[in-house]
C-alpha cells in the first residue's frame, strides 16, 4: 500500500430523511469530503444484510448487499416511486437508526417500486436486471429463494421449515420456486437495485482516487442462505442444527469466554471442493470494494470451537483451520489478495508467522497501547511499516470516551507519551496515527468529529442497542476536512503541494484552528 490514510464509517451512519444512511446524496457528498480531507481510503463494515441484533456481522447472506442501503430518492428518480412515496415517512430520528421502523417503511416502499417495475416502468433497466440475475445466479438463486421462504414462514429459522425444504429435497424446492416465483423475483430485484446504486458510488469514489476497504467476517450466521444452501460445508447434525459453534476462550476480561454461536466449518469438506465457496465469496466481496479486512484472521489457523449445547465458551477447545492452504487456493483463483487482516486479541506466534508468510498487513489500535510499558506492541515506536493503525475500531469506545474512563495511571501514561495534556485527545490520537510509520492510518469519523461515547458504534457482548449511530449533515463540513487534509499532508500521507483544500506548507493553518474557525462559521 502507499503511505496514505482513510476514514472508518459505515454508510448506515450517513444523514438522510429516511431513518438510515443510504446510497443517496449524502454518500456522494461524503466522497467529496474525503477528497477535501486528503483521504485515499474509506473503510466500511460488512455491506451484507443485517441479522440478529441488527448486526452486519450476523448476516443472512455472505454474498447479498443490505437492502436498507437503497436510496428511495434514487428509485423515485427512476420513476418507480412517486414524490409522495418518498416525502411521506415516519418522523425518524436524525441521530440514530430505529432498525425495525426503518425496515418496515423501506420494505413497503421497495414493494411499491417493484410493483411499478413489474408493470413496465423503468423499461431501460429490465434487460440489465435479467443479466444481473443470470450473472449472479450461483448465489442469488439460493438467496432469493431463502428470503422468499423466510417470508412465507414468518421469519422462522430454516431448521423449523418442512423437512423437504430444510433438507433441500429437489421436489420441495421446485414446488417452492413455482409457488413463490414473484417473491423470489422481488428479492432478486432488490439485490439488483442495491448493487446498481453501490456500483455507481464505488465508481465515483475510484474516479476521485478513493479506494473502499470492505469487511469479511470469517464466520456466517447459522440462519443464513449460506448454511442452508451448503449444509455439507458446516459441522451440523442430521437435523441441520450446529454441532460446534464459534467463540472466544476465557481471558482476563471474562472467565466464561465469549459464545458467538456461529456454526463451525467442516474444513475437510471445504478442502474437497478446492475452497470453491470461499473463492466465490471473496470474489463477490471484491466486486463491491477494493480491499478487504479479514475479520478474526486467527480463525484460519485455529478457532475456538464450543459444543453447541454449552452455555459458556469455557468448555471449548482450539479447532485447527486450513492455514495457508486456503489462501493459496484463493490466490490461485483470484490473483493477488488485497487483504488487511484483523490480528487482534489472543495472537500466538504461529498466527503472526502465517500473516508474515502471506505478506499481509495486520492491525494496530492505539487504545490498546497504554496499559503496559514501552514494549507494548501497539505503541507506534514499535511498529513496522506493513500495518494499518487505528486510534480505535468500530468495537471500541470513541477515543474521548475511552480516555475519560481510563485509570489515572493509564491517563498519565498517555499524557507522558504524547507530551500533551489530553484535552484534545481525539485529535492527539489522530496525529499520532498519521505520524506513525504504518503504511495506512484509518481514522474513525467519530474521533475526527471529536465525539464521545454517545457516538459509539458497537459494544461487544451487548446484544441490543448497537450499530445505530448517525451523524448530522452539518457535522461533516469543509473546515473539518481542510484541517484533516493539512495534518495528513504534514505527515506525508498526501501530496504537500495539493492545494485542493486551499492549504500548503507555505500557507499554513493548524488543523485545530481550521476546525475551530469552521465551527464558528457554521454556528
| Alpha plus pi helix count | 20
What percentage of the residues does DSSP assign to strands (E)?
A: 5-15%
Strand order of the largest sheet: 9-6-3-2-1-12-11-10
CATH class: Alpha Beta
Distance between the termini: 39 Å
Computed CA radius of gyration, to the nearest angstrom: 23 Å
Q: How many discrete domains?
A: 1
Structural class category: alpha/beta
CATH architecture: Alpha-Beta Barrel
> What portion of residues is helical?
40-55%
How would you state the average pLDDT, rounded? 93
Major sheet: size, sense and barrel closure? 8 strands, parallel
Q: Show unreliable segments.
A: 499-523
Shape: globular
Q: Please identify the oligomeric state.
A: single chain
- The H-level CATH homologous superfamily, spelled out, is Glycosidases
Q: How many extended strands? A: 12
Question: Remind me, CATH topology?
Answer: TIM Barrel
Structure commentary:
The chain starts with a strand and ends with a helix. The chain is globular, with a radius of gyration of 23 Å. 45% of the residues are buried. By secondary structure, the protein is of the alpha/beta class. It has an 8-stranded parallel β-sheet with strand order 9-6-3-2-1-12-11-10. Helix 1 packs parallel to helix 19 and helix 6 packs across helix 9. It has 20 helices and 12 strands. It has one domain: Glycosidases (TIM Barrel, Alpha-Beta Barrel).
